[in-house]
Amino acid sequence: MSSIRVRFAPSPTGYLHIGGLRTALYVYLFARKHSGQLVLRIEDTDRTRFVPDAEADILKGLKWSGIDYDEGPDVGGKYGPYRQSERTELYHKYAAQLVENGEAYYAFDSAEDLERMRERTGTGYNAKTRASMNNSLVLSSDEVNRLLEDPSVEHVIRLKVPENQKVTFDDVCRGTIEFATEEIDDQVLIKSDGLPTYHMANVVDDHLMEISHIIRGEDWLPSTPKHVLLYRALGWETPVLAHLPLILSPTGGKLSKRKAEKSGIHVFVSDYIDAGYEPEAVVNFLALLGWNPGTEQEIFTMSELVEAFSLDRVGTSGVQFDKNKLDWINEQVIHGLQPSDVLDRLEGTFNVEGYDRSYHERVIEILLPRAGKLMEIPGQADYFFVDPSDYDEAVVAKRWKADSAKFVRAFSEKVHAVDRWEGERLHGVMEGLTKDLEVGFGKLILPVRLAITGLGSGPGIFDVMELIGKDTTLRRLGNIIERLG
Length: 485
Ligand code: GLU
Prior knowledge:
Blueprint: E1 5-8, H1 18-33, E2 37-40, H2 54-65, H3 88-100, E3 104-107, H4 111-121, H5 141-149, E4 156-159, E5 166-171, E6 175-180, E7 188-190, H6 198-208, E8 213-217, H7 224-234, E9 240-244, E10 247-248, H8 257-262, H9 269-274, H10 279-287, H11 302-308, E11 319-320, H12 323-335, H13 339-345, H14 357-367, H15 376-380, H16 393-399, H17 404-416, H18 423-437, H19 441-453, H20 461-468, H21 470-484
Parallel strand pairs: 1-2, 8-9, 10-11
Antiparallel strand pairs: 3-4, 4-7, 5-6
């Protein structure tokens, strides 16, 4: 088995974001490409921002997208549990070890103490200020033990960030990155509620779960030096790092919820599901949002993506969200689907009583090339099942001329005699008739289309006539003459 192990580690503080899905996708593609293992880990240590149904939404979004994982809260695995809230003891164990080794310390400062220190020094809790605070570096061990046992005193565990050091790490997407430890405060590792911070839990779990590559959004880059320090302090090797470029709104800047909404863009994966996008299209679109295949190919299946994906073709600069591109990809994807697959995807929303499956499939075959989303099809299909109850007024006003009834009647008489009822033959009949009558094709086809569908435009009208059959066609041709004269 490959030693590649990667994880997608969402926090259930909100529903699955489209940017989160892109991260999950890149992690997935990398794992599958290298025959590695993909872990889903739920980072639920921030109880104040916890959203109860967020985890279910995340799982649903991943499943919908076709991103499956080898280990996770709902599938198990030998590195579990996969929810951080179920791993608290582990974080305490390593935090205690850090304290023991002098890499971390207990701090008993109240919120007011911290506020006063910030006002006084203008900096954070660090090598310069920690000596003036209430912590186990300063207090006697008796005092520390007393405070730890006093239930009325809250405490945290902080990382003792070394002074005047450089933290350097290599990022697969962005090269070598350097931070100075002066920029980093003594991070809280265990909060006063006993839960670990993101940094602590993330590092401990990535290590214990034997994660080989950390692939995540660029917004986590500022956390990375803190993690690197923690790996060092714990004596562990830092996994390979790769930070993905930000997704930008069409108006520039990070794609925040507010900005996205202003540009008519959904931020949650569930909104894309509700809006009728196909999972393959969203996946294809997200794959290209930050990764460049290096070829002209734009439409990919998931397995083609797995084949083509590599982290070194992931860019560093932010990428703009282009909704038109997504819509275009969705069209390409659906136009390549088989009618029976489309019918299944429409999940019973397209099921007209009295018509069998194969009739529905024929309707789909005719309408699909003009559809942008599958969900449009049922709403466009009425005239395949019932005679038009009225005719588009604007089309009537513009296109129904004094001689239209005459042309429709002439066409009706001709098709009456057709016995092999096929679209192509009907087309031939109309062509012949335009020659006999010495008129343009439009003079005939537009009133006929209006008669059959009630509309001024639509799919190939001869295909429609073939499907609805001879009797229905003749009846509708008669109806329009009667009603519009
Ligand atoms: N829990 C973090 C998030 O919500 C994970 C970041 C990481 O992958 O380290 O995205």
